[in-house]
Design a protein that fits this description.
Elements: E1 12-16, E2 21-27, E3 31-34, E4 37-43, E5 47-50, E6 55-67, E7 70-83, E8 88-94, E9 98-100, E10 105-111
Parallel strand pairs: 1-3, 2-4, 3-5, 4-6, 5-6, 6-7, 7-8, 7-9, 8-10
């Protein structure tokens, strides 16, 4: 699996398959994969994996998020945000680590701080596909 969690075994707690739509609040422990559509709030210290057909819209607060599909809203990741080559992220991001692979699309703002999630005013990164 390309997005395996670093340094630990990533057990999949759940899966939202293509053709499914969940509206509401999602909480999970280790990792959750979305290949359908999720609208609402996601909260976990684990890993959220958004597959190529996956769509997430809303507020996301996770340990790590790996985007191969589309995410819109706000994203706060305590460890890392990674956008795969076909991934699209339209969001306000707060994370200590941002990986944008060649071919990925990111529109929004990114606040990066490495002091344990303490927000401090500073420059914001704004990237757009030309």
């Amino acid at each position: 699996m390309i997005f395996k969690a670093e340094g630990k075994h990533a057990d999949l707690n759940g899966f939202l398959d293509k053709g499914s739509h969940l509206h509401g609040e999602l909480r999970f422990d280790a990792s959750f994969r979305v290949d359908g559509k999720l609208t609402g709030t996601v909260e976990s210290e684990g890993d959220l994996i958004v597959g190529e057909s996956g769509e997430v819209e809303g507020e996301v607060r996770v340990g790590q998020i790996f985007v191969s599909g589309t995410v819109r809203g706000s994203v706060r990741a305590s460890r890392k945000v990674q956008i795969a080559p076909h991934g699209k992220l339209f969001a306000e991001i707060d994370t200590p680590s941002l990986v944008i692979e060649d071919g990925a699309l990111f529109e929004g703002t990114c606040s990066m701080n490495r002091d344990g999630g303490k927000t401090s005013p500073g420059p914001k990164l704004v990237a757009q596909k030309a």
